[in-house]
Structures are given as structure tokens and as C-alpha cells.
Amino acid sequence: MSHVKAGGTAKNVHDSPGQRLGVKIFGNQKVKTGQVIVRQVGMTKRPGTGTMISRNFTIHATKDGIVKFSSRKIRLFSGKSVRRTEVSVE
């Protein structure tokens, strides 16, 4: 016979590493073509001039320059107008 009762199965023991999201290059910093400026899930920040957005919503620089963050109004599908941060390279 067993000397220890059955402990059952362990749940919620798997752990995944962080995704390292966030702003990688801040405002007024130099950037080169192809460098990652922002890693994000969804379009929390929008691409502006001199930037492009990839399939996983990462914003990259399309030219050398200085990063600028600005605020602009975006109209949602419902018609509501909200402010979003726009990332551009000048």
C-alpha cells in the first residue's frame, strides 16, 4: 500500500516568458531604417510618416531620422472620435 495519499494533478503550473512589448526608441532619438520603434499588441500607437506597421503591429522606421510622438484624433467604426498616439520619423 501507498504511504502517501494521491495528490491529484497540478494545474496552472505552466509559465511563459514575457513578450518584451513597449516603446524601444523614444522621442527625439535617432533611428535607422528598419529599426523597431514600438512593439505592441493591437494598434495602441499608429504609424505616421517615415514608419510602417508589420503584421504583428510592430512599428518600424522606413528611413533614417529622429523619432517624433504626437497625438491625433482617430474616428472609430462606431463614429466616436478618440485620441491616439502617432509615431513618425522626420
Write the topology of this structure:
Layout: E1 22-23, E2 30-31, E3 36-39, E4 45-47, E5 51-53, E6 59-61, E7 65-75, E8 81-89
Parallel strand pairs: 4-8
Antiparallel strand pairs: 1-3, 2-7, 3-6, 5-6, 7-8
Span between N and C termini?
75 Å
Assigned CATH superfamily: RNA polymerase II/Efflux pump adaptor protein, barrel-sandwich hybrid domain
For the record, the CATH class is: Mainly Beta
- The number of domains is 1
Query: How would you characterize the largest beta sheet?
Result: 4 strands, antiparallel
Residue runs with pLDDT of under 50 for 5 or more positions: none
Helix and strand run: EEEEEEEE
| CATH fold call | OB fold (Dihydrolipoamide Acetyltransferase, E2P)
What would you say the CATH architecture is?
Answer: Beta Barrel
| SS summary, helix count | 0
Radius of gyration: 21 Å
Strand order of the largest sheet: 1-3-6-5
What percent of the residues sit in helical stretches (DSSP H or I)?
under 10%
Pairing-aware structural class of the strands and helices? Answer: mainly beta
Tell how many strands the DSSP assignment holds. 8
How confident overall, as mean pLDDT? Answer: 92
Shape: elongated
Could you tell me the strand content as a percent range?
Answer: 35-45%
Report what the structure shows:
With 90 residues, the chain is an all-beta fold. The protein is built from no helices and 8 strands. It has one domain (22-89): OB fold (Dihydrolipoamide Acetyltransferase, E2P), CATH 2.40.50.100. 0% of the residues lie in helices and 41% in strands. The strands form 2 sheets. A 4-stranded antiparallel β-sheet has the order 1-3-6-5, with no helix packed on it. The mean pLDDT is 92.
